[in-house]
Every structure is written in structure tokens, then in C-alpha cells.
Design brief:
Layout (H helix, E strand, L loop, with lengths): L1 H5 L10 E2 L14 E2 L2 E2 L1 E2 L2 E4 L2 E4 L5 H12 L1
Parallel strand pairs: 1-4
Antiparallel strand pairs: 2-3, 5-6
């Protein structure tokens, strides 16, 4: 939050989430808050058009590419 404010940036809390990446059992994260707003955990996220999954698998991304190639 301090970094964002010092650089005159804003964060859209409604579009913000986090992914707890881990090949094995991830470390539990109870609550993640920024300026008293709760950040939700997701199993996957899209970054620069690539779907990243919390378990480092790429089956969702591969299936999306295959679907695009076959249509």
C-alpha cells in the first residue's frame, strides 16, 4: 500500500487476487488484506495471456491453445 501511494498508483481491489503457488501442499494463508480490504485466493490466474495454475501445471493453458488451433 505504501509503495503504491508513494508512486501515485492505485489498486483495483475488485480485480485483485492472489495465487499460492506450490508443487506440494501450499503454506496456508489465513487472511491477506490491503488497506483493510480482503484479497481473495484463486487456484489460477491469467498473466499476459497465459493461465498460471497454483500447482504449476499447464493443462488449462494447453487446452485453450488446442481449442484455438482447432477452430
Amino acid at each position: 500500500s505504501d509503495c503504491l501511494m508513494s508512486n501515485r498508483l492505485t489498486l483495483n481491489i475488485n480485480k485483485t487476487h492472489f495465487v499460492n503457488f506450490s508443487k506440494n501442499q501450499p503454506c496456508p494463508i489465513n487472511n491477506l488484506n490491503i488497506d483493510y480490504s480482503s484479497i481473495n485466493e484463486k487456484n489460477q490466474t491469467k498473466y499476459l495471456g497465459v493461465t498460471l495454475q497454483k500447482n504449476f501445471k499447464f493443462d488449462i493453458q494447453i487446452n485453450k491453445v488446442i481449442k484455438k488451433l482447432t477452430h
